[in-house]
Amino acid sequence: MNGPTRDLPCGIQVFQYVYNRCFERYPINQKRWHQGGILVLTYLAYTCYHLTRKPISVVKNVLEGNWAPFDTADAKALLGTLDSAFLFAYAGAMFFSGFIAERVNLRYFLSLGMLTSGISCYLFGIARSYNIHSLWYFVLVQAIGGIFQTSGWPGVVTVMGNWFGKSKRGLIFGIWNSHTSLGNILGSLIATAYLESDWSLSFMMPGAIMGLVGFIIFLFLIPNPVDIGYSSFASHGYRKIDATNSSDDDVADEGDNSHSIGEDRVIYRCVYRDQLASEDPNSGRSETSPMLAGHRSNSTSSRNSAIGFMGAIKIPGVIEYSLSLFFAKLVSYTFLFWLPKYIDASTTYGATTSALLSVLFDVGGIAGAIAAGVISDYSGMSALTCVAMFGLAFPTLFVYDYVGNIDLSLNIILLLIAGVLVNGPYALITTAVSTELGTHSSLGDDSKALATVTAIIDGTGSIGAAIGPLLAGIVSRWSGWHSVFYMLMSADLLALLFLSRLVYKDVRSFIQRRRVLHI
Fold first, then answer.
1. Contact of 373 with 175, CB cutoff 8 Å
2. Is 371 helix (H, G, I), strand (E, B) or coil?
3. Which residues, other chains included, contact 307 with Cβ-Cβ below 8 Å and sequence gap of 6+?
4. pTM for this predicted structure
5. Pairing of strands 265-267, 240-242
6. Residue 188 backbone zone (phi > 0: left; psi -120 to 50: alpha; other: beta)
7. Phi, psi for 241 (deg, rounded to 5)
8. Could you tell me how far CA 7 lies from the centroid of its own chain?
């Protein structure tokens, strides 16, 4: 440890007391243990966030036609309004949430957000117990829940960014990001278990679980390694050079094996010092030498200063990935909120079987997140990875729409493939890409942009997530489900197009790296 601890969670204090009294003779790598604990805690936390989002999509089949005010011909549109109330509130509050997350203790931020989110989910369920039929009650509860849920993503991504370096970030985040799909799966299973007996428990049980895990976060989460006396886990590696600029001004520290995102730069390792010995006119150091430890960018006045909204949005790649995520989340959240209803409407499986079958989309999403992360790490081309998956998702959605429900086996296979291709790029952008941009070289050593950049990208994507389910409810009511799938395919195409400039840069940078390796 390198310094005094501050505001140490009481659960960690108890753990350290027991260890010092009983197990001090058995030395352990405490850094690794703390990192493992952060992985588990943040994983559990965001699993619960999605655990409480999923029940509404399952319970729609029971609410429609059986519970006022959703017992009219406009039930689909009204249910879509609930989705939009949640998602528009979520999208709007997300930008403020990232601003707040940069400036407060994330342990309190996350635990309070989880407690209030759990209460909101619980309040939806008590509508059955108290025989509440007011549309405005449901809309208000959903909107409040959307606001409180914004505490999750900026919080957990920032904590992960604080504790883990850049090496194999795509793989780590790809595996870690399975919490989204796992939360959806568990939410579906819990909601389905009470669907036909007492749908109120479909909301109350996830709400109670989330509140409990929020208390665990309060007891054990350490948001930053410096809070427990360790130095930052940001690694000092090799310098990056902008290969497309005539000057060498844009130079920064990077972790070993890292890759640039949204810009054309080549990682020159020090083993090429003899071949690439040009000098940086501003720093006086060799372009191929490692940066000196403790170096601070001139553009960064303080390591603890938080970047503003306009400063974050100017980071190269933030706008393109934000707009691409807008359409990616439009597709993903349309599936999240409407897939059980679509399967029920287009087959004879029934509400319970349809809800269970929809889980396969999230199973595919787990594999897609890991695959996207591994490919991105291996290739160093995040934009191209996303575009390739968007491109393959287009024909997959078309095939699923027309032949997916003919046979159960075919339905299962296509749902798994669709989950891989739809959720893979969405997961990559919201995790590894957001974290990379939040610690972009233009910020120097200032990592206080992480929550803000994450909130901007995910907030923009959440606007698309709000629009998608709303349009799906309206379009399916007036034009049928085929039109909904045409809408989703168009959104995938637009998500692809917004990354086209970054793909060009990815490919050009890859070619330049290959040339350097053969020098």
1. yes
2. helix
3. 102, 443, 446, 448, 449, 452
4. 0.72
5. antiparallel
6. alpha
7. -130, 135
8. 28
